[in-house]
Design goal:
By secondary structure, this protein is of the alpha+beta class. It has a single domain, classed as 2-Layer Sandwich (Alpha-Beta Plaits). Helix content is 38%, strand content 13%. It is built from five helices and four strands. It has a four-stranded antiparallel β-sheet, sandwiched between helices. α1 runs antiparallel to α2. The longest helix is centred in the middle third of the chain and has 22 residues. The chain is globular.
């Protein structure tokens, strides 16, 4: 049975999500941490049963474009919860005490003392294909605007190359372009 297709509409929105690290700390500077983040995003996508259409991992934030199978709060809970846990667990395992100290806060109700992400929600609902493509382009040009690469397709930590050239075996994170049903037959 073929997987169900996603069509952007008022009844089937996409989500443009930006998650920012606590105090804008440059958490995602190393390939190791970016790989952990990619694996965690994939785990969150599978656990939360949402699709991933585009992404870019910057030094202190991530942009993602997903669908919204339940609520935006559910998608954020899976995304921020799993990525935060995996990266903080890695920092603990490697005894990166200086980094952990920067992520420390008062103990919260769930008995955790570290947070990778800022509290605020930065989620924008997308209801049209035009806005969807505007956000895909914005996400992919983010590393170019930041001076990390000259061309969007040169950034290993975004989905730009996949959008341009198709799925790549060496891509750190799979995306679900093939699950989009375009109105215009794109």
């Amino acid at each position: 049975m073929a997987p169900e297709k996603f069509q952007i509409s008022r009844d089937s929105q996409a989500l443009y999500i930006t998650v920012v690290s606590k105090d804008r700390l440059p958490v995602f500077k190393t390939d190791t941490i970016k790989n952990i983040a990619c694996r965690a995003i994939d785990e969150a996508r599978n656990s939360g049963r949402f699709l991933l259409f585009a992404y870019a991992i910057m030094s202190d934030h991530m942009h993602l474009l997903t669908n919204c199978p339940k609520t935006s709060a559910d998608v954020l809970r899976y995304l921020k919860g799993i990525t935060g846990r995996r990266i903080i667990d890695y920092l603990k395992q490697k005894n990166y005490e200086t980094s952990l100290a920067k992520l420390r806060h008062e103990e919260w109700k769930r008995k955790h003392s570290y947070s990778l992400w800022q509290q605020e929600k930065n989620v924008f609902s997308i209801f049209s294909e035009a806005m969807f493509m505007e956000k895909v382009n914005y996400i992919h040009l983010n590393p170019v605007r930041a001076g990390l690469v000259e061309r969007a397709i040169d950034d290993r930590w975004s989905s730009a190359k996949i959008w341009q050239e198709g799925e790549a075996e060496d891509a750190p994170l799979r995306i679900d372009i093939d699950r989009i049903r375009w109105r215009r037959g794109a």
